[in-house]
Amino acid sequence: MSEAPEVTREPVMTPARAVIGLCLVAPFVAMLWVGSYAKTDPTFIGIPFFYWYQMLWVLLSTALTTTAYQLWQRDQRARAARKGGASQ
């Protein structure tokens, strides 16, 4: 019988992918945990905490999504380079 060639696989879960997942999950957790921000104090320039906290997460979500995208692109380029292919 012939032996099957040894196939080496790259790990599916890398540290970069773990950070990407955290960047994408954090806004959901923050917004679904309503008890943490369902209050009026402290106010910021007259705006109750409930509202400015949500608006702050709009900006934070944008930054985290951008970070996740950049990490994903870097991860894909590194994988393509290891395989010897051209990056897209």
Description:
With 88 residues, this protein is mainly α. The chain has a domain at 41-75. Helices cover 60% and strands 0% of the residues. The chain is built from two helices and no strands. The mean pLDDT is 86.
Brief digest:
This protein is mainly α.
* Overall form: elongated
State the order of secondary-structure elements, H for helix, E for strand. Answer: HH
Instruction: Work out the number of β strands.
Output: 0
- Average pLDDT: 86
Largest sheet: number of strands, sense, barrel closure: none
**Low-confidence runs of at least 5 consecutive residues:** none
Structural class: mainly alpha
As a percent range, the share of strand residues is: under 5%
Tally of separate helices = 2
Question: Which percent range fits the helix content?
Answer: 55-70%
Radius of gyration: 21 Å
Query: What separation lies between the terminal Cα atoms?
Result: 41 Å
